[in-house]
Prior knowledge:
The protein has helices at residues 8-41, 91-101, 131-138; strands at residues 79-84, 105-111, 122-126, 145-148, 156-160. The protein is of the alpha/beta class.
Amino acid sequence: MAYIREAPTWRRRRHRRHQITLVAVLVLLLAAGVVAAGYYTGRLGTSGDDVAVRPRPTCPPASARPARPTAPLSPSRVRVNVYNTTTVNGLAARVAAGLRQRSFRVGAVANDPRGTHPAGTAVVRYGSKGTAAARLVGSQVPRSTLQRDRRRSATVDLVLGGGFTALAPPARRTAAPRPTACTPSASPAATTTRR
């Protein structure tokens, strides 16, 4: 029985073909690993449907930034008259003392000069210049109602009604929220959220 012997050139060619195939497979596996790592870390691809990216805060344009944040109205800048319409003696004086402790500037303390008798807890009367002051005074009495009249000053009247029992608990002062750091984005794609 005779064995077929291949020429040495065929053996070398086949060996070289196997080496080239092995190197090509290794290079493809390495490239696939690099691409997969890039997608996994978020450095590659902008249309990854299953990766959620938190948007980075962006700075508003300089023209849109307010020059100075508006501070809430301070009680020390509000002048309030306290009027009693109930049969409880000294109620207006007690409420006025409570408002003074909260830094309000108290003006007149008396019976209501208009002779009204509100059924609720209180009515806060104010003019066009005293809207913010009226809201602040109204927040001091639970379920109070605001009533605008024709006065021209910012002075506010607190008219205590038959349903009044006590001032609302003083509001706690909370620290102002810290602004978030914003970085200008180079491209709009950096701020979009991927789903």
